[in-house]
Design a protein that fits this description.
Number of helices: 17
Oligomer: single chain
Number of strands: 33
Strand content: 15-25%
Structural class: alpha+beta
Length: about 850
């Protein structure tokens, strides 16, 4: 894992810096106190422990997302195939009922053979998933094969016996279909083939068998190519395959590295295997099935070389500042790392603060050597530098961790959208085939030629088709005037004899050739209870003249089918995420989360990320690319789009960091003052450092009876208890009423103050602030009083002066100094003191 190795090295360099600082801090008593040697040792220990957890987290997250990527590929491999084969099980049942086929097998003639061969060619022209069609008589003798057999290819006696046994099974079968993957002598190949078979009956008696040979290799290689040429780099070096229950490879994406017949160890769903001398991460997945059909018992497998599996974990994400991504995206045991990292940083800041406060208190006292003071100052400076390096190291590691997670989520969103559209395109491909084939049904043509369906034969045929193909809401047969002749649904028989005025009727009657079809707009249909759907249709012609005498329309059960795709492809999404389909106008037509889908439709951003309800989402979007000739070659475009939103960043509280100063002025310390700065929200405040005893981590504020404003309660700091004034309450009076106002906040700090009174007494209490800022030494003349009464006396307001300081970005920043008089009045319980108004926002950086 190159990323992990790089990150480990960076963290190790910071750890070495802490080792050196710990050693230096022990070289003098003053430096040990000033640099808080115990704090350094604790920080170093916490850093080492957290760094190790962070590295392990990178490893686990890398592994998790690589496994997820491979799982997705393996799952799609088998599930897309199973959905395809489900359609084949319906095809064989309907085609076996074809009257022309039954009549030919009952009485095979040369003339009949030519006619039936032409009819089967029409079938394969529409259902291009089949490579061959075979017709056998009642004794298992081959009568017709759409693709002529090679007479020079001998079939062994053993194979003849196997074929005979298979055909006997088909002829006596009462099942809806027979599915067989093996070598078939009649297929004229030594390679196994997937065949769907069904007995054919004439007037109730079995007279032969029908077999459809599926283009399995062709289908799988096209699917592999699609999956391995996606727009993300997660498929680099990946091998995909189809394996049976024993792990035997049936078809592989790379015929050299994943040869047919090679047996993989698939006992574990996820494992590391050695394959052709190279270590691979291998993931095997069972099918989810489709409408009760589970396929031939095969599984999908995906393998990726271990040296490539984690190469792109932290690839560049398009989700912006991933450092603020949601911790919920991480594994549970990693979700506390950002807080613990911030706690270490906060502890180091307090260590530097308290060390400087101690140095300021020592000053030029007798017995303190100038070099000791200088050494301690230098050490504290280095502690501050190393603290920033620590923050940067953790930020880099966390950023890489988040970037990998966010990139994986964005890949997942795109993969789901692509898969959903692929399923829809494949589904609609079948609909385009169905309407054209059923338009060639002789009995339907006869009914239209007669002009009526008095015997109900057409209705029976349509009803039987609808029972086999559950993807339809209704099938409609109409004549050349647009009048309904028959319907498949008994509840809609009252429409027989009525006129259909939809635009697709005239378009259908104008079609030329048996390969042409028409699709309605996405619009309401009277045959779908007024709901939006697609209606696929084809013209019915007289056999001799070819004149159009009507048409057949099939009404897609859009809600059921789209919801089925949504359910399958949205599995595993969070409650605040969504997979949705929209029409060409951007209107949502199906979704896993209606509220979120409609919110997205209102903005309909084409970007790779979007913000909704305060959350940031990674967006995956696909319009599909068709399937076989459907949409890819026939010029049809349905206009549907699938969009997936995966949450990559949750609602973030606004945080403001202390301003970065250009540099601290090199001033005469005898003429300057020490200012300790802090942040409260967006406000940068300063206090006279001589009034601060120490900085401490925030703790729970205890409610004290009779406590008057501005104090919130009392807090224990060390061995003592202090009244607490929360500066947020001063700047925003609404915060004190919040139920969590007294709870400890690991991101906040307490400043213990010691305020001199006018009579020589001292007042001790704690200020609660958000963050510690830099400790400054400022010339007295830089301090500009701002709160004055009309007679020139300082007013009792919170801010008594401002200090202008240069920022690293070239701006001049104003530091607001909290007045000593105001603090004294607060300590004395003067309620009016903290209510004195001042627009502090005007001074905010």
């Amino acid at each position: 894992m190159p990323l992990v190795d790089k990150q480990r090295q960076e963290l190790r360099l910071v750890e070495m810096a802490w080792d050196q600082l710990t050693l230096l801090s022990s070289m003098s008593l003053l430096s040990t106190k000033a640099s808080s040697g115990e704090d350094l040792s604790r920080a170093r220990h916490d850093f080492a422990a957290l760094a190790d957890e962070l590295i392990q987290g990178l490893v686990r997250e890398s592994l998790r997302h690589s496994v997820d990527d491979m799982s997705s590929l393996a799952q799609i491999t088998i599930d897309v195939l199973v959905r395809n084969l489900f359609e084949r099980t319906a095809d064989i049942g309907f085609l076996a009922m074809d009257e022309s086929i039954a009549e030919y097998l009952h009485n095979p003639t040369d003339t009949g053979a030519a006619h039936i061969e032409q009819r089967l060619r029409e079938y394969v022209q529409k259902y291009s998933v089949y490579s061959n069609v075979f017709l056998f008589d009642g004794q298992g003798t081959l009568l017709t094969a759409l693709q002529a057999l090679d007479a020079d290819t001998p079939v062994s006696a053993t194979q003849h016996k196997k074929d005979a046994a298979f055909l006997q099974q088909v002829l006596t079968s009462a099942d809806a279909f027979v599915e067989d993957f093996s070598v078939h002598g009649f297929a004229n190949s030594a390679e196994p083939s997937l065949v769907y078979a069904h007995p054919v009956a004439y007037q109730g008696r079995v007279c032969g068998a029908l077999c459809l040979q599926f283009r399995l290799v062709d289908e799988m290689q096209a699917l592999f190519a699609t999956l391995l040429t996606q727009s993300n780099s997660a498929t680099k070096g990946v091998l995909l395959g189809l394996v049976d229950a024993n792990g035997c490879v049936l078809i592989g994406s790379n015929t050299q590295l994943l040869q047919r017949g090679y047996v993989l160890d698939t006992t574990e769903p996820t494992s590391v295997v050695t394959h052709w001398g190279r270590r691979y991460l291998q993931v095997v997945r069972e099918t989810h099935g489709f409408q009760g059909y589970a396929g031939p018992g095969w599984r999908g497998v995906a393998l990726i070389p271990m040296d490539l599996a984690f190469e792109d974990f932290a690839e560049e994400s398009t989700a912006g500042d991933v450092l603020s991504a949601s911790t919920q995206l991480l594994l549970p045991d990693l979700q506390t790392i950002p807080l613990r990292s911030a706690a270490i940083q906060s502890a180091l800041e307090r260590s530097v603060w308290n060390g400087l406060l101690e140095l300021y208190a020592v000053g030029d006292k007798e017995g303190v050597a100038p070099r000791d003071r200088l050494f301690a100052q230098t050490l504290l400076s280095e502690v501050g530098v190393t603290a920033r390096k620590t923050a940067q190291a953790f930020a880099s590691a966390l950023n890489n961790l988040y970037r990998g997670v966010v990139a994986a989520l964005q890949r997942d969103a795109q993969t789901r959208a692509d898969l959903a559209m692929q399923i829809v395109d494949r589904n609609l491909y079948e609909r385009a085939n169905d309407c054209r084939w059923w338009a060639l049904t002789p009995s339907l043509g006869e009914v239209l030629h007669q002009g009526h369906d008095e015997q109900g034969s057409a209705a029976k045929v349509l009803e039987h088709i609808n029972n086999l193909y559950t993807v339809y809401s209704c099938l409609v047969l109409f004549d050349a005037t647009g009048k309904v002749v028959a319907v498949s649904q008994p509840r809609m028989r009252d429409r027989v004899g009525s006129q259909v005025h939809a635009a697709w009727v005239n378009k259908t009657l104008q079609l030329s050739g048996s390969q042409a079809y028409w699709v309605s707009q996405w619009e309401p249909s009277e045959f779908y209870d007024g709901l939006d759907t697609f209606v696929y249709s084809a013209a019915v012609r007289e056999p001799q003249s070819g004149r159009v005498i009507g048409g057949i329309a099939i009404v897609w059960d859009a809600q059921e089918q789209l919801n089925s795709v949504v359910g399958a492809c949205a599995e595993g999404l969070r409650a605040d995420e969504v997979l949705l389909f929209s029409d060409k106008n951007g209107h949502v037509i199906a979704s896993s989360n209606a509220d979120l889908a409609n919110a997205y439709a209102a903005v309909c951003s084409p970007a790779s990320t979007c913000q909704l309800n305060g959350l940031t989402y990674g967006v995956g979007q696909s319009r599909g690319w068709g399937y076989r000739e459907f949409r890819a070659q026939d010029g049809y475009e349905h206009g549907l789009t699938c969009t997936v939103l995966r949450m990559v960043r949750d609602k973030q509280a606004e945080t403001v960091t202390p301003p970065a100063l250009l540099q601290q002025p090199n001033l005469n310390r005898e003429k300057g003052i020490h200012i300790a700065t802090c942040m409260v929200g967006k406000h940068w405040l300063g206090l006279d450092a001589s009034c601060i005893q120490l900085a401490a981590s925030d703790t729970q504020i205890l409610h004290a009876g009779g406590m008057r404003a501005p104090f919130l309660g009392m807090a224990k700091v060390g061995d003592r208890v202090f009244h607490v004034l929360d500066m947020r309450d001063v700047l925003d009076s609404t915060t004190a009423s919040k139920p969590d106002a007294r709870l400890a906040d690991p991101n906040r700090q307490l400043l213990v103050l010691n305020i001199p009174g006018e009579g020589g007494q001292r007042y001790e209490f704690a200020l609660r602030v958000d963050q510690l800022g830099p400790m400054l030494h400022v010339e007295s003349q830089r301090v500009q009083p701002v709160a004055m009464t009309g007679d020139g006396v300082a007013a009792n307001t919170m801010v008594d002066a401002v200090i202008s300081l240069p920022a690293s970005d070239g701006r001049q920043l104003l530091l607001c100094r909290v007045g000593l008089r105001w603090l004294r009045q607060c300590a004395q319980g003067n309620n009016l003191a903290w209510q004195e108004g001042m627009n502090v926002d005007a001074f905010s950086p």
